[in-house]
Design a protein that fits this description.
Helix content is 52%, strand content 17%. It has 230 residues and is α+β, with helices and mostly antiparallel strands.
Length: 230
């Protein structure tokens, strides 16, 4: 079977896709019984879903002893395999790598251009949201802006967000630009941060926008803290 068709076939099952998301977000190894309990499935059904996900290499497994005696049990964990689907096939990863490498040749000037463009993109993304929902920024209340940030979280791929009055904390467990970031972390992280900052600064007066953790520094997440004044 064509690899693309096989991937779409495996991930088209809603339960299986939910299991895949769950394993990725928990950031730990899971057993068949863990999945059976979490999704209210018979262990044999849970095992089938996990095996299918392993076949397309989005999950890996290994045998480990549980410490309770008996045979080692199979534990599953998310892989670094990137699933990219397009019809016809397009290599956007290669395109982004070429673009980043071109800007790297310009040194600091290239970095400044990248950050400026990212900031503009983040602002445009919010403006498009406002336009598509027929919202007028100047009359939005703080509560409405907070609601908008939460709705935008899915498109910005936040894995979790905590809102406290004038403060936001949010995390990524999977870098949306991971493969390109490995080429030149400073450039790609600068781009990502500027996109996020641009989006926030359309809606709020931002007093502080700070990245506190980075997966490229061996942290478990990329985490951010934002303080706004309105």
């Amino acid at each position: 079977m064509d690899p693309t068709l096989k991937i779409t076939g495996v991930l088209s099952d809603p339960t299986r896709y939910s299991i895949y998301q769950y394993v990725c977000e928990t950031k730990r190894e899971v057993s068949v019984q863990n999945i059976a309990d979490e999704f209210d499935l018979h262990p044999n059904v849970a095992r089938l879903h996990l095996s299918k996900l392993e076949e397309i290499r989005v999950l890996h497994s290994e045998l480990k002893k549980t410490g309770k005696g008996g045979r080692p049990g199979k534990l599953y964990f998310s892989s670094d395999e990137v699933v990219q689907l397009s019809f016809p096939k397009r290599d956007f990863a290669a395109l982004s790598e070429v673009a980043i490498r071109s800007l790297m040749k310009l040194g600091q000037t290239g970095y400044n251009i990248l950050v400026e463009t990212g900031y503009e993109y983040g602002q445009e993304m919010v403006k498009e949201y406002l336009q598509s929902h027929r919202l007028e920024l100047s009359i939005l209340t703080k509560a409405e802006k907070l609601k908008m940030i939460l709705e935008l979280a899915n498109s910005l791929e936040f894995n979790s967000m905590d809102l406290q009055s004038n403060q936001f904390s949010f995390q990524y467990h999977h870098c949306p630009f991971k493969e390109t970031a490995l080429i030149e972390p400073a450039f790609v992280c600068g781009l990502h941060n500027s996109i996020l900052k641009g989006g926030f600064e359309i809606l709020f007066n931002v007093e502080e926008f700070k990245q506190e953790e980075s997966m490229l520094n061996q942290c478990s997440t990329c985490s951010y803290h934002v303080i706004v004044t309105n």
